[in-house]
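Forum: Protein Structure Q&A
Topic: Joint prediction for protein chains with partners

I've read a bunch of threads here and the consensus seems to be that you should model interacting components together rather than docking separate models afterwards. I'd like to see that in practice. Below is the full input, 476 residues plus whatever partners are listed. Could one of the regulars post the assembled result?
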Amino acid sequence: MKMKVEHKLFIDGRWTGGGEPIPVRNKYSGEVIATIPSATRGDVDAAIAAAVRAARVMAEMPAHRRSAILAAAARLIQDRREEFARTIAAEAGKALKYARIEVDRGISTFTFAAEEAKRLHGETVPLDAAAAGEGYFGFFVRRPVGVIAAISPFNFPLNLVAHKVAPALAAGNAVVLKPATWTPLTAVMLVEVLGDAGVPPGAINLITGPGSTVGNWLVEDDRVNKITFTGSAEVGRQITARAGIKKITLELGNTSPVIVAPDADLDLVAKRAAVGAYYNSGQVCLSVQRIFSDKAVYEPFTERFLAATSAMVVGDPLDEQVDVGPMIDVREAERIEGWVAEAASAGARVAAGGRREGPVYWPTVLTGVRPDMKVVAQEAFAPVASVMPYDDFEDALRQADATPYGLQASVFTKNIDRIFQAMRWLNFGGIIINDTSTFRVDHMPYGGNRQSGLGREGVRYAMEEMTNIQMVAIRK
Ligand code: NAP
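Posted by a regular:
Agreed with the consensus. Here's the joint model:
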């Protein structure tokens, strides 16, 4: 199937419907590259109704068949790898080299789902551990929840959609997908792939349009059994307020800390932290934002980090050499420009970057910041990192943990005591040692504590959240 420039919705196995067209732009040039329809209430209703019907088909589908469909999807993404990567680079502004990595991760996510589809199982339960259970045999199975609404953000238009759709289908559910309005074209391609791979009509539906209307209709509908959402904490909060009684997974933001202990390999930290802070223009939920360096190594580390920052090539994301492309929108670049200016006027030093041209914001390092500055206290979601000296390791852990968020944190050290201390003190869903907070492979349990979210993704863990336990007790 060829991608069309004027896209439609995908409901019950057909490209159809849709209200007003919404333009989708190349984020570097600003050129309109496609349109997508704004779904009407009737479209959303039809998509949910189709998913309700298809949920029965999916629940009856044998595991080997679900696995084969997901494996076929992985192969079809591989066949269109370059087309996917260029679409991501154009619509999200992600440098092509990182867009290709995202496609490879998307393939890996579908491959893990194909494997996990065969391993979904329950357990026996020794009911006779209770006196009243004597004479009973017990076990539980995992049943698909039914209809899953998947709502995704702009920053990983393929792999974050894959992390919702692949486990949902692997567990035998039907899906209504609403991708970010900034980046719907990769989702259109993925839905084409899923149709070609043999997903039954209605088991994957694509509706596009503003989250404030289309998203709300989906979230409020009682036929939807689970919402899986990745995006901002603000929208996450609105969803929990509206959803009523359904399962919810939320993958939200972070102000990722990286702690540099005095025994760290400073060259390694500087290199990895620069990639972690600036790739996708820092618009990554795990993006390196707050770097705490032991004061004994603060000067040599900062020097190396500034050199790694200045080495970043900034420009058109479709250029093979470029590391950092535009932000998703000029208003986002202006927002972070304002935050940096505010920090500078309150005494922070802009040690590198601090420059904006249209939607492009240059990799920026701040020193001399205070914890109450927006660039430190709030999710920056931009290519801006602050380096802060600390006196002792406990002080660093305390500062790193002083945030309402709790997705992933990182510590660079070779000292095992520090590693165990970090595990105890840091209330984060993931602790990464000797790499930055951005480390993620697609089968590991992944998700946030505190305001960073609810539940876990990472195919098998997402499947657990996308199934209900059904207990069976048999009186012998
Ligand atoms: P966003 O503004 O929260 O949007 C995310 C999705 O929610 C979009 O599809 C959006 O639709 C939709 N939406 C908006 N309002 C809605 C509503 N009232 N009801 C239902 N859906 C609604 O987030 P974003 O700007 O795309 O992404 C950036 C955020 O995502 C950051 O905070 C980042 O940390 C977080 N994130 C977290 C993870 C993680 O794994 N923890 C990964 C990536 C990103 P429209 O596009 O139409 O507005």
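Residues 168 and 466 are 6 Å apart (CA to CA).
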